[in-house]
Amino acid sequence: MVQITVPKDFIVAATGIAGPETLTNEGTKTIRYTQNNIHDFAWFADKKFFVQTDTMHLSSGRIIKATAYYLPGEKSAWKNAVKYIKDAVRTRSAWLGEYPYDVVSAVEAPMGFAGGMEYPTITSISSGMGEKDLDETIEHEVGHNWNFGILATNEREYPWMDEGFNTFYDNRYVKEKYGDAAL
Q1: Contact by Cβ (8 Å): 149, 66
Q2: Alpha-carbon radius of gyration of the chain
Q3: Distance CA 159, CA 59 (A)
Q4: How far apart are CA 118 and CA 135, in angstroms?
Q5: CA distance 58 to 164
Q6: HEC string of the chain?
Q7: Tens place of pLDDT for every residue, the chain, 183 residues?
Q8: Distance (Å, rounded) from C-alpha 91 to C-alpha 132?
Q9: Angle (nearest 5°) at CA 155 between 151 and 158
């Protein structure tokens, strides 16, 4: 369990399931996040985030929540971000076993490099991508939930166990979604 206190006008995106917000001191709120079976935690906050949320049914019948957080300047590219998140979870669940968490999110965040960074249940994505690149980056970063997240592979010592397997499934995803010419 992690508790985060921020100014009350900020929107927070974080690993795990958000509990109810409680007003703490004047002008602040505290949000409690819980998540079992993880080895890392990340959070992002901005008062300008646009938030899109939807649910999806996994093949077992379990329902999970998919959420995209992005800034106003990325509205055009991110308009289908929740769909991309759901596509990533759906395909990886079919190929590698069902997604075990109840939430999955992608957040646009300044990173200092192009691409993304994975954390359990949430991924950060850099700004300035077109829709197809955003789809592929979200799929790649959400895909890390299986090897790096669920299995907790040591990507520093054995990068092939995370990046290698993840790239294999990235290529499969791109080929199935966009065709051979996209590879």
Answers
A1: no
A2: 16
A3: 30
A4: 15
A5: 26
A6: CEEEEEECCCEEEECCEECCCEECCCCEEEEEEECCCCCCCCEEEECCCEEEEEEEECCCCCEEEEEEEECHHHHHHHCCHHHHHHHHHHHHHHHHCCCCCCEEEEEECCCCCCCEEEECCEEEECCCCCHHHHHHHHHHHHHHHHHHHHCCCCCCCCHHHCHHHHHHHHHHHHHHHHCHHHC
A7: 999 999 999 999 999 999 999 998 889 999 999 999 999 999 999 999 999 999 999 999 999 999 999 999 999 999 999 999 999 999 999 999 999 999 999 999 988 899 999 999 999 999 999 999 999 999 999 999 988 888 888 878 888 888 889 999 999 999 999 998 766
A8: 17
A9: 95
């939807």: which residue's tokens? 54
CA distance 121 to 104: 5
Spatial contact of 25 and 6, defined as CB atoms under 8 Å apart: no
| Angle of CA points 38, 39, 40, to nearest 5° | 100
For tokens 């590219």, what's the residue?
77
d(CA 83, CA 25): 37
